[in-house]
Design a protein that fits this description.
Blueprint (H helix, E strand, L loop, with lengths): L2 H12 L133
Length: 147
């Protein structure tokens, strides 16, 4: 991803527009502190992307590849992460309140200190995920896999 694309992300959302990055290849992108609120990132490749402190509230991340992504301190409140790949993702201290993580693959992810209150984790795979000190109040764990 080049500097122009990062500038576009910042300016488009500053104008209050819904950013459409559906199917975008953002592998290894530096999106620290990016405003991606309400963005459409469905099917986007964010593998190894740095989204530390990014604002992803209400973002559509269905079927997104976030494997090995850095999402430390990211705000994913009300984000749609259905069927997303979050294997080995770092979600330490992330805000995932009311996030939809149905069928998400969170194997080996770091969710320590994350706020998962009211998140929907039905059919999600949390095998070997680090949930130490995470806030797990009122979560739907129906058919969730643990090891």
């Amino acid at each position: 991803m080049n500097d122009n694309a990062e500038y576009l992300i910042e300016t488009k959302n500053d104008l209050g527009m819904r950013l459409d990055l559906q199917n975008a290849d953002l592998q290894n992108a530096n999106l620290q502190n990016a405003n991606l609120q309400n963005a459409n990132l469905q099917n986007a490749n964010l593998c190894y992307a740095d989204l530390q402190n990014a604002d992803l509230q209400n973002a559509n991340l269905q079927n997104a590849n976030l494997q090995n992504a850095n999402l430390q301190n990211a705000d994913l409140c009300y984000a749609d992460l259905q069927n997303s790949n979050l294997r080995y993702a770092d979600l330490q201290n992330a805000n995932l309140r009311n996030a939809d993580l149905c069928y998400a693959d969170l194997q080996n992810s770091n969710l320590s200190y994350a706020d998962l209150r009211y998140a929907d984790l039905r059919y999600a795979d949390l095998c070997y995920a680090d949930l130490r000190y995470a806030d797990l109040q009122n979560i739907n764990f129906t058919n969730t896999l643990f090891r």
